[in-house]
Amino acid sequence: MSIVSSGDFLMDKLNSRKTAIIGCGFVGSASAFAIMQSGLFSEMVLIDSDKDKAEGEALDISHGLPFAKPMQIYAGDYEDIADASIIIITAGAGQKPGETRLDLAKKNINIFKSIIPEVSKRNKSAILLIVANPVDILTYTAAKLSGYPENRVFGSGTVLDSARLKYLLGEHLNVDSRSVHAFIIGEHGDSEIAAWSSANVSGIPIYNFCEMRGHTEFEEEMRKIAKDVKNSAYEIIEKKKATYYGIAMSVKRICEAIMRDEKSIFPVSFMHHGSYGIKDISLSMPAIVGKNGIEAEVPISLSQDEEEALHKSAEVLKEAISDFFA
Question: What percent of the chain has pLDDT over 90?
Fold first, then answer.
């Protein structure tokens, strides 16, 4: 296990029903809307470099509260995060058509270098949930700059990629996608890996279930599905300029697991220190998520090819990070 929980974070210093979202672009505002509907929190502060934007989003979402649960939603600044239990960081430049997530690295690392010290100055006890892209590099950046225990700094990682994989498999096999159990691991990006070795439908190995449903060209079909998952964001960005609903639902789901101490298993991005031979890099592998953040990594079976691809994914990220961290 590469993650060891450092114990309960200091809830006595925090408002356990309060969250903060830093960055009110498409992803931040969609996440705020999804969180409002969830009823998880009684207070949410929105922070953005454009204060008017944050105020507009807070007002717009607040006007729907008569149809939801009571909640205080307002625009604020860094002073307002001092007692937040979960700080969600979506701030950063958006991914443009034809641009990879790694292309975003330089711009968004510089943004994080201004945000993270402001956060850690005011709140040392929260969980930092990194959502901005490239999420693996920015999770690494946040872990290095914040001084937080590593179990309390993690990224949304390949949670959405894995949801896309489950959705496409459900469509392909004509089965409820909630019965599909499969992970995308590694980078949230072009080097991500579909972990077919551990994929199953209600405990039945994916290979066997495909045969049950009359699909015999497994290798070809799975390659196409994995490619479609990897290219999903590019396709959406090309058609509507940004992706935000899927990731907003992912953020809401991760917050549920934290707030309810569910100990749910998600492929989140976190720092690795030796598992699968990967060290000093943040990438996605399944982990148990609860009230203290990441409680433990969950080892899964990987084929030799999948493990080699995971190492290559780690190298891609290490090479990208080496340009910014000596």
Answer: 84
The order of strands in the sheet holding 180-181 is 180-181, 200-201, 204-205
Tell me which residue of 79, 91, 73 sits closest to 129, measured CA to CA. Answer: 91
Neighbouring C-alpha atoms within 13 Å toward the C-beta of 232: 23
Asked if 188 is an active-site residue, the reply is yes
- Pairing type for strands 200-201 and 204-205 reads antiparallel
Tokens standing for residue 76: 């604020």
Q: Decide: pTM greater than 0.85.
A: yes
Tokens of 66: 């008569």
Give the active site residue among 63, 172, 188, 273: 188
Cis peptide preceding 205, ω within 30 of 0? no
Residue extents of the structural domains in the chain? 11-155, 159-322
Q: How far apart are CA 111 and CA 116, in angstroms?
A: 9
Q: Which of 284, 286, 282, 299 lies closest to 257 in space, CA to CA?
A: 286
Indicate the CATH number for domain 159-322. Answer: 3.90.110.10
Token pair 């909640």 is at which residue?
A: 71
Tell me the CATH number for domain 11-155.
Answer: 3.40.50.720
Contact status, residue 93 vs residue 99, Cβ threshold 8 Å: no
Q: Is the dihedral of CA 192, 321, 130, 289 positive or negative?
A: positive
Q: How confident is the model at residue 106 (pLDDT cuts 50, 70, 90)?
A: confident
